[in-house]
Amino acid sequence: MRHDVPYPLMPISYNQEETEMHATTVAVDLAKSVFELAIANAQWRVVSRQRLTRTQFARVLAQTPPTHVVMEACGTAHYWGRVAQQHGHRVTLVPPAYVRPYVRRNKTDRADAEAILEAVRSGELPSVPVKRVEQQALVALHRVREQWMTTRTARINVLRGLLREQGLLLPAGPGAALRALPALLDEAATVLPRHLRQVLTSVHEEVRAIEARIADLERDLRALADADPVVKRLRTIPGIGLLTATALVGTVGRIHAFRRARQFASWLGLTPREHSSGLRRRLGGISKRGDVYLRCLLTHGARAVLVSAHRRRATGQPLTRLHHWAMTLHARRGYNKATIAVANKLGRLVWAVWHKDVPFVMPDAA
Description:
Elements (H helix, E strand, L loop, with lengths): L16 H6 L2 E5 L4 E7 L5 E8 H10 L4 E5 L4 H10 L3 E5 L1 H4 L9 H14 L10 H33 L8 H14 L6 H33 L2 H6 L7 H11 L8 H7 L4 E3 L8 E4 L5 H24 L5 H13 L1 H22 L10
Parallel strand pairs: 1-4, 4-5
Antiparallel strand pairs: 1-2, 2-3, 6-7
Helix pairs in contact: 6-8, 6-10, 7-8, 8-10, 10-12, 11-14, 12-13, 12-14, 13-14
């Protein structure tokens, strides 16, 4: 018995005549090293169970006749989905939140595989399209940039705090603070200890190096955006820039999986949470059940739309229909609620532009 896995590995039974004859659906509970398989027949009855390593699972996908492979849309699911599709299998990825209610009693790999099978058998759950390698690479660029931006903010906050303890204040804003720091350190040569001044200079150089990496990454994103027609069309929408458009293309993948614009806005978590019963309908705040990063970018885009609307009105420029609606909503419901409503509107506009393959054109308000 091997000691690096919790249970002994079972022999591969795909060569058995009975299993090959009756197996129509394979539910897979993914993991880093050990995969649990539940193989069901046309009546959704489990006829075989397997516990395989990564190498064995890849060999099973290659040797098994084309069948229906079902997995949770979790880590490595898109990779294994592409591998299964290359061997002719039909792949269905189910959101993990929809599988959880089907887990019986204790959580084990075997129970998870059976829960995936039950969730698919219900026939009412939406599936997640398998992403291409280019889409996952695009999302990876955004994840790395987000981590670098978090590190940059943390380093700037360290500089502010340490200098404030010495009676020195940096100006507001990250750009202004970094520009003022070298001169401030030189002027404070007689105030700051030498070793502290050297450490602060090193932190400042680290922040500048991170900014250079972020600029290089954004140049890569810009090159990818210039070659993608979908990104070009999405950037015609007010409030949708380079980061939001590329993040949408990388995360969503196939917009036709959403039947209408409201379904897409609901997937983003920008629609009200509902708790209704009988004749009483209760609507609360937004659900926040979608991708946090996409919702954050759309919210920032909505703020940009409101700022643009105020500037247009202040300078006497004509307002578009979107700007006029945003200003009216701002006056009636306040800034924060208007921001989320505009973000919801931007999500619906993204669905319309992407689904219909047309650029966005907004006429001036009457």
